Amino acid sequence: MINKYISVKKKILLVTGSSGLIGSQIVKNLWKNYDSVYGIDNNEREKFFGPNGSTLNVKKDLIKEIKNYNHLNIDITKSRKISDIIEKLKPRDIVHCAAQPSHDHASKIPLRDYDVNAKSTINLMEAVRNFSKKSSVVFFSTNKVYGDNPNKLKLTEKKLRYDFKEKKYHQGICEDFNIDNCTHSLFGVSKLSADLIVQEYGRYFDINTCCLRGGCLTGPNQSGVELHGFLNYLVKCNIKRKLYTIFGYKGKQVRDNIHSNDVASFVEFFLDKPRIAEVYNLGGGKKNSISILEAFKLVEKITSIKMKYKYIKSNRIGDHICYYSNLKKIRSHYPKWRLRYNINKTINDIAENINL
Question: For the whole model, what pTM was predicted?
Answer without folding.
Answer: 0.94
